[in-house]
Design goal:
Elements (H helix, E strand, L loop, with lengths): L14 H28 L7 E3 L2 E2 H38 L1
Antiparallel strand pairs: 1-2
Helix pairs in contact: 1-2
Length: about 100
């Protein structure tokens, strides 16, 4: 049983835009994460405070970081897909 031919990969015209977007999202996530670390270093007892449905700040903030990473990943994928479609379409018209 044979498989089909390998996918032909071309030039990624959107790579610069995708890189810049990735760096911006990384910077945003890093700032939020630095806030988490700062609380733990400066006022660690604050993490024990119950703030939502019986959960303390450490759990809520930690889960928030996880959800933020997932949401930012989805946003990155959506925007990069749009960049790729637009730029590849523009390049196809130029040929």
């Amino acid at each position: 049983m044979d498989h089909g031919p390998a996918v032909q990969l071309g030039v990624d015209h959107a790579s610069d835009l995708k890189s810049k977007l990735g760096i911006k999202l990384f910077a945003v996530y890093s700032l939020v994460y630095i806030g988490f670390i700062a609380i733990n270093v400066i006022e660690p007892m604050l993490m024990e405070k119950v703030i939502f449905l019986g959960l303390n700040l450490a759990v809520v903030y930690g889960m928030g970081l996880i959800f933020l990473a997932i949401i930012m990943g989805l946003i990155y994928n959506r925007i990069c897909t749009r960049y790729e479609q637009e730029m590849n379409e523009d390049m196809d018209h130029d040929l």
